[in-house]
Please model this.
Amino acid sequence: MGNYKDDQNRMNSTRRNVLISGVVVILLVVLLQHSSKNTGPKVQGRASQTRKVVGANFRDKETHPGNDDEDVSQKNLAERIKKLESGSAKVREELDVYWQHTSVLDDSWGFDSNNKEGLLFMGGKIARAVKYGKPLVVSVIGSSVAAGHDNCQYDSMESQLERTLRTVFKDTGVDVVVRNAGEGGECKDTMENQVFCLRHMMGDDTDFSVYSWSYFETSKGLQVIHESFIRWSLMIEHAASPSLWYPHGCSDLKKEVDLFDRYSKYGYNINCMTRGVEKIGYKKGVTGLGKRVRRGSSSFWGAIGDGMHNVTRYGSNEPEPRRSSLGVMFRNWHPGPLGFQVSADAYAWRMLKATQEAIVLLKEAPESIEPKITKLSAQDLGENKCGLTGYRPYWAGNALCDHLPVCVNNELPTYGRPQVTYAKESDAANPFKETFSAKVDEYVAPANIKMIPREERSMPNEMCAHYDHCRGFHADFMTYKFPPISIGYIVVCFIQNKGSDASKLKYFINDKKIEETPFLMAKNKCHVLQKTWPEGEKTLQDKTFYLSIDMKDSPTPHVSHVFGL
Model:
């Protein structure tokens, strides 16, 4: 599966691609500002920090385009199946030997990782990708744990998983992409606002979705948020197979049993980072070499070893201090490279089982594999329980989880297309087109080098820099264009909990001012403008409409999200 030195040539090539991509992106931004498909405002101000991150997103799309216009289903299919068998056998043996033929990777899952129905659902996605030469996309949304903070990006769970899966699918015509849409604490996000924007963050072409917000979660209403993530993942274009990921042992999963019972047939499960290694003796801070590479207030911060290994597979030949750094399970509350490896290996191990199902399908019934994925509807998924707890912000009851939300998320990175767009000056239907603000200020948080280990800050930027940046827009008057939404639930969020500072804002739906005072959600980050369509405005359910924000008397807040449902 390669190591750091083996990847140097590839990364040198990547650096060239990044430079090229940066130029391409800047040109694209200029063009998009004048395009009818414009989704964001023209900006003045601190835009320079965004280019590398946006470039990374465009690089994904350019490097992994798939073969949408070409039918490759009959081209060397038998040979590609053999390559898949060979690649999967190679990785399975490597993982089995590395984990000393134990059940650590199976035990890392909260529930039965061999659930046949779920593996068949996952395997069907893999079989389709192989038969038609499509990309296979895994997308992760979450907090700074998902973003890989306190580590080099190269050592994040997502990067490790992508390298492993690429070995499985080498020469099969399948390009594996693992998207890291984790967002750190700079913008003060929680799962309460981010889960509504999963389509824009992950992309509708996501085949497997992962959610990680454990440190922000409380017991109240937790299963409601989990169920919304599960259902909304399955309702996007590629019917993404969902899972949760926790950087601990998941000591109490009693409240999650019902969700597993109802959604395991779609591959749903919970990846618990230390659950498996705890069964072979791992205890925070007391295993392995018994030394730390970084001091902290907790005994396990910087401790080396997972109970069986003292370095990642790709780190055994690295010089110090890099080698010791690659053996850290937890930097602090953030996992280290060895901790991320446990989760990445557990996910890859389960994907290998799904791959076996895919191989059987490709051999025995290839004609049953359709080129297009059929989206799942709320009716397909059955009755939900999203309205049972009364948990804010789910006042609309079960109906909320039966409709896909629409969103624009101004933070970085995002990998999909926004469904809510910034209205153009030339939009004749915009009721406030005469009030269009030509001057828009963009706030972008600078890269935080402190989120990279001190001893690794001299490594190539493309290997260590994180993708996430807090970003928001502000203008005297802003108008967003919404597609039709059924429920009428509308929310605006601001960077860094600035919702509580936005008391002087005025909101309009089309040309009608919203008279009710918005109330706060997501730890004061967001304004909930309305929970449902008022009785007199339900005719808007089937119509495009405009949300306008008069900000001239409140110069502080920058808009980070606008979403509705």
About this structure: Residues 488 and 495 are 23 Å apart (CA to CA). Residues 337-364 form the longest helix (28 residues). The two ends are 43 Å apart (CA to CA).
